[in-house]
Amino acid sequence: MTSRPARRNRRNAEAGPAPDEAAERSGPGPGRSGSGGGLPRSLGLTVASTLVWGVAHLCTGRRTLGAALVALFAALVVGLGAWYLVYRPDLLHLAVRPDVLSAVAGGILLVGLVWLCVIIRSYQITRPGEMSAPARAAGGVVVALLCFAVAVPVSWAAHTTYVARSTLTSIFHAGGTNGAKQIDTSDPWNGQSRVNVLLLGSDSAYDREGTRTDSMTVASVDTKTGETVLVGMPRNLEHFQMPPGPARDRFPDGFTGDGPETPGLLNEVFQYAEDHPDMVPGVAKNHRGPTLLKQTIEGILHQRIDYYIMVDMFGFADIVDAMGGVKIKITQPIPYGLQGGVLQPGDRVLHGKEALWYGRSRTDSDDYTRMGRQKCLLRAIARQADPTTVLTKFDKLADATKRAISTDIPQELLPALVKLSEKVKDGAQISTLAFVPPLISTGNPDFALIRRLAAKAMGSDATPSPSGSPSGSPSASSAGSPSGSASPSGSGSPSGEPSSDGGPSASPSGDGGSGGGSGSSGHDSGHDKAKPISLDAICPS
């Protein structure tokens, strides 16, 4: 008598293999065909499976695997669509999180690999068993083209995501490392009504030792509305007090520089700190300069400086080139360079070198006119850096940005910072206030006036820093500029010409005018410039 398992095995043998197993056994091989219809049908099913996974498997009787592939493909499509609809408002915020970018890059590569396997296997199970050499070649070419059509966009997406992550992690460090603050992501602004960021333009030319911060602007941004005030600090400000500690001990009567060849200007503080580690004990190289400069400007303004961003001027030119240039309206000729070049008036597209000179040229001009042009240039770049430009020039922009920018903004703050920048770009008012003659005498500054104006423009989030003007330092009134300083007509306006009301001209040329002005007119102009002025009035579109 046969046992029950033996009888069951005999019945299974008589019934034959399961459909999916039979399909696998009857796959392509010598003398067999994967399916009827020849090569055209095989290629058609392979194309169909490229568009919707599993079609070829279902048509060749492999129902289990085919259904699983179709279900997986549908789940991916539906899931991606749902994720986009739910997180669409937060896509930019997610795009500045390195952990999210790592997961996205890995997911893209995994999906791409599965996709390629589906294409190749679909052709294998549907191709005729016997084909001529030309037919085999034609089939191989079509499959290769299908794989290429999938691999290129998948590779590009994964590469772009990886580059974005690499750029973020090379510029922005995690909180608590490399001088970056620890951030509570549930309250990124720590209850502050404004965030103050020091924007530095550094000039480290090949023929100059060290780095000079010739452009210094404090961007004070309302964390709720995005309204922004750009407070311009003149590079040649003198007689300012250093922050308490080793710096104040070395310069008790105000900063005097490093030897007779350095007059003690504000743009010297950065390099002085880098050259003298004892000025900021415990701070690493390349962080000493921005640390001391932030503390010094905090003392000058009596306003908290939360973070800094420094852009190397020559790297900035690379960024502009990567963008394809920046559109600027110039109203007067701007001489530049050593070869007698001139930026002519009109609506111009400035490329890297030209944009650099637009922001740096002082020929027939002055520091204060240059400060105005720099703000107009920043405004133009911010407006023109749209998503299309960023995506189409992404690799070049990322490479230039990594080489040009340094900051102490922590990675964890980036999502909140992106939200804030969207408010700024969506129409929040941007105004400017420059502490330049005739409002402020850079050689003999009225620090009390500077602090009153800063407090009014930037709100009441003042720092309790005691570092003020040095004892005994005379305070200049706003009635005039010191001897030898640039004429009041060029102060802070990119045009270099005063408007009829004494405020900044609405037609920035980028070149300083030569017209002077009487003491009384300079006094009136100084009072006009005591209030922040909209960049829209200074920089024509």
Q: What's the number of helices?
A: 20
Structural class from helices and strands? alpha+beta
> Largest beta sheet: what is the strand line-up?
9-4-1-2-3-10-11
Gyration radius, rounded: 33 Å
The beta-strand count equals 11
Spans with pLDDT under 50 lasting ≥5 residues? 19-33, 464-493, 495-527
Let me know the largest β-sheet: 7 strands, mixed
Portion of residues in beta strands equals: 5-15%
Measured distance between first and last alpha carbons = 100 Å
Helix content: 40-55%
Q: Can you give a write-up of this model?
A:
Keywords: Membrane, Transmembrane, Transmembrane helix. Residues 1-38, 459-541 are annotated as: Disordered. The protein is of the alpha+beta class. Helices cover 47% and strands 11% of the residues. It contains 20 helices and eleven strands. Strands 9-4-1-2-3-10-11 form a seven-stranded mixed sheet, with helices on both faces. It has a two-stranded antiparallel sheet with strand order 5-8. The chain is elongated. It starts with a helix and ends with a helix. Mean pLDDT is 79; it is low at 19-33, 464-493 and 495-527.
List the helices and strands and how they pair.
Blueprint: H1 4-15, H2 19-25, H3 38-51, H4 55-59, H5 63-87, H6 91-94, H7 98-126, H8 133-171, E1 194-203, E2 212-222, E3 228-233, H9 246-250, H10 269-275, H11 288-301, E4 307-312, H12 313-323, E5 326-330, E6 334-336, E7 341-343, E8 346-350, H13 352-360, H14 367-384, H15 387-392, H16 394-404, E9 405-407, H17 414-425, E10 430-434, H18 447-458, H19 519-528, E11 533-534, H20 535-538
Parallel strand pairs: 1-4, 3-10
Antiparallel strand pairs: 1-2, 2-3, 4-9, 5-8, 6-7, 10-11
Helix pairs in contact: 3-7, 3-8, 7-8, 8-16, 10-11, 12-13, 12-16, 13-14
